[in-house]
Design goal:
Helices cover 26% and strands 19% of the residues. With 180 residues, the protein is α+β, with helices and mostly antiparallel strands. A five-stranded mixed β-sheet has the order 2-1-3-4-5, with helices on both faces. The longest helix is centred in the middle third of the chain and has 17 residues. It has a single domain, classed as Cytidine Deaminase, domain 2 (3-Layer(aba) Sandwich), CATH 3.40.140.10.
């Protein structure tokens, strides 16, 4: 039988660790502004890298977080990894950027699905995704999800009638208590 004195619980602290800045006070209002900030670093990478630029309410950069380093032709990232630095930095909004070392700037199906998922999660936590920009080659061209109408920042609507909830969705499973 365990006694209370035999049980210990660790206390965890979450803190923002600051590295040397690579950003400036230039406001990021266009995809070109985002590329000016991180494009060169991304284009110099020999594999796909996904980063998030966290912004203040006036679109001034707070920081840049390199969230995932992948392989030659793909990189995966979970929404929590992208949102972690934004929440710790008290960001008002964010922009995703990643590179295609091949130079082909067209988004893959995975890129489109990831952007849609991140956009939904960002809407839920109140840090809107302003754009997702893909760079490649010599950094002279880019693909902007916002310019192509793929990032729209729709308002999030919450269901107030429990009878209309979609219990088959992943969120519904947690609400039912099916997973712990």
């Amino acid at each position: 039988m365990e006694r209370e004195s035999d049980f210990t619980l660790e206390v965890v602290s979450v803190r923002l660790v600051r590295d040397a800045p690579i950003l400036s006070e230039i406001k990021v209002d266009t995809p070109e502004d985002a590329i000016r900030l991180v494009g060169r670093e991304l284009c110099d990478m020999d594999r796909e890298v996904i980063c998030v630029i966290n912004l203040k309410a006036d679109n001034t950069p707070i920081n840049c977080h390199f969230a995932s380093v992948g392989a030659l032709d793909y990189a995966m990232v979970h929404p929590r990894e992208l949102l972690k630095s934004g929440i710790l930095s008290n960001a008002s909004r964010m922009i995703l950027a990643h590179n295609h070392p091949s130079g082909n700037l067209l988004p893959s199906g995975t890129d489109v699905r990831m952007t849609d998922r991140i956009q939904q999660v960002c809407g839920l936590v109140g840090i809107p995704l302003l754009d997702h920009v893909i760079v490649g080659g010599d950094n002279s061209m880019y693909f902007s999800f916002r310019e192509k109408g793929l990032v729209k920042n729709p308002s999030v609507e919450y269901q107030s009638d429990y009878r209309r909830l979609d219990w088959d969705s992943p969120a519904g499973v947690a609400e039912r208590g099916g997973r712990r």
